[in-house]
Write a structure and sequence with these properties.
single chain, 488 residues, mainly alpha, Hydantoin permease, two-stranded antiparallel ribbon, 20 helices, 75% helix, globular, binds phenylalanine
């Protein structure tokens, strides 16, 4: 904590034009971790792993974190710190600085929209977690079997009024922090509550060990069976790498814009990615043993943690206490992520319309609230209203979306398309278009590491993203078959 202690008032006299700054690198790491660690790790990672058959999916996901996620995170933080503005203006400014078109601002725009759409459903799911706090605390789950626990979940999501109430409350909490500026409250809260969440996960791992199905859970997570993974599975593993690290939409860019000069972007990125991955893997190590111990389906979908964890709490000592604490901390983790989801839109609106932070928060909060209704109704009133979209070629049928509700569609559009596309453009910009002297100056690592980063961000990451996209559209299968039909 010793370095770069800059207060907001100091920086306003400094060279940053009054822009807020984190008070140290540690605080930046905590805030970025707060953004990264959220529902993505504890709610989404286990259920999409279960939907995609386990080990092979996890392996692809880990590979994407290492080869795509970390280099792009460095690129995104770097652009943010150099631009020091909202994502749209940052991209315009940097493009100009290196002699390129101002239409790079569109990248920032896509991020603002992605963040907005993600928050609309994120807030509803965080509302589920909130709804579980009083249920845990009042002992609703005590002694319940898995059918009864399933019922509690089914009942919750079938009731739009209840979902709307929690969604509203969560969104209000998010906007209240955003309206005040992200620095003050967030810094302190993240410092204490994140480590607590971590300790609680450790306690749950001990419980999972005691279920007698721990090994089976580990095997499910870590033994890749490639026959189980599909092209869509690969796309969602990659999409999730972006989602879980908060990449590709400007959240980390905006946080990077508050980063004091001179702090190491590489170390910070690696630290954040490691902590984020650790939390996800821990969540998997908790959920799957419980799934197997209770003969549940790993592919239960978005309700997975809500159907499994209460079972664990209902059977452990002090389960009511730990369960309440767990869902509280999950809400908290979601809260620190949701703040970063809307921050790009807020900074952009403040600048574009010359309005105050409070006004920007009220307006965008209202819009997100309405958009969230789509997700609320996806689980009840409009659950039958689904779309299926396939591309069929003579080389096979490629399912883009199957029986997708509005929620599934939003999730697919944002995680599997918008974030990777945003990340791809960030990589291309940082690796190919930004002047080398600038990226070298910002990253400030030795020649060896700069070269590695540069290779990853110029070649590996963009090529991987493009291949995964093409693969999901069936283009790769098409080329392979063509190749085969020429007798190679
Ligand atoms: N990374 C967050 C999570 O895992 C979600 C998020 C995505 C936050 C994109 C900001 C930007 O829950």
């Amino acid at each position: 904590m010793s370095e770069a202690v800059t207060t907001a008032s100091e920086s306003s006299q400094g060279n940053l034009g009054g822009r807020e700054q984190w008070s140290s690198r540690l605080v930046f790491i905590l805030a970025a971790t707060g953004s990264a660690v959220g529902l993505g790790n504890i709610w989404k990672f286990p259920y999409i792993t279960g939907e995609n058959g386990g080990g092979a999916f996890v392996l692809v996901y880990l590979l994407c974190i290492a080869a795509i996620g970390i280099p792009i995170m460095m690129a995104e933080i770097m652009l943010g710190r150099r631009g020091r503005q909202d994502p749209v203006s940052t991209m315009k400014k940097l493009a100009q600085e290196s002699g390129h078109s101002r239409s790079w601002g569109l990248l920032g725009w896509m991020g603002v929209i992605a963040g907005f759409l993600i928050l609309s459903y994120y807030s509803v799911i965080a509302g589920w977690a909130m709804a579980y706090v009083p249920r845990m605390a009042s002992g609703v789950f005590t002694g319940m079997d898995s059918a009864a626990v399933n019922n509690v979940f089914a009942e919750l999501v079938s009731n739009p009024e209840v979902l709307i109430t929690w969604h509203s409350l969560f969104l209000f909490m998010t906007m209240a922090v955003v309206a005040r500026g992200v620095r003050g409250g967030l810094e302190k809260a993240v410092t204490y509550l994140m480590p607590m969440l971590f300790v609680l996960l450790l306690i749950l791992i001990f419980y999972a060990i005691g279920t007698g199905h721990f090994e089976q859970g580990l095997q499910y997570l870590f033994t890749p069976d490639f026959s189980k993974i599909t092209t869509e599975g690969i796309l969602s593993a990659m999409g999730h790498a972006f989602f879980t690290l908060s990449l590709g939409m400007g959240a980390i860019m905006v946080y990077g814009s508050y980063l004091p000069p001179g702090t190491s972007i590489a170390k910070a990125s690696i630290a954040v990615a490691c902590m984020d991955t650790l939390v996800a893997i821990m969540a998997g190590m908790i959920i799957f043993p419980i799934v197997f111990a209770n003969a549940l389906e790993p592919s239960a979908g978005p309700g997975l943690i809500f159907k499994t964890l209460p079972l664990a709490f209902s059977h452990m000592d002090y389960g009511r206490f730990f369960g309440t604490l767990f869902f509280l901390l999950l809400v908290f983790a979601a809260w620190t992520s949701s703040i970063s989801l809307i921050e790009p839109a807020i900074t952009w609106a403040m600048k574009t319309f010359q309005i105050t932070r409070i006004k920007a928060a009220v307006i965008s909060g209202g819009l997100v609230w309405f958009a969230g209704l789509l997700t609320v109704f996806s689980f009840n009133l409009t659950s039958e209203l689904t779309i299926t979209s396939t591309i069929s070629t003579q080389y096979g049928e490629f399912v883009i979306l199957k029986d997708a509700t509005a929620f599934d569609f939003l999730d697919y559009l944002t995680s599997n398309i918008m974030l990777p596309l945003g990340g791809l453009l960030i990589a291309v910009y940082a690796g190919w278009l930004m002047k080398k002297e600038y990226s070298r100056e910002e990253l400030n690592v030795n020649r060896f590491w700069y070269t590695i980063w540069s290779l990853l961000v110029r070649f590996v990451a963009p090529i991987m993203v493009v291949i995964v996209f093409l693969n999901a559209m069936g283009v790769v299968a098409f080329i392979r078959t063509m190749y085969g039909s020429f007798g190679f």
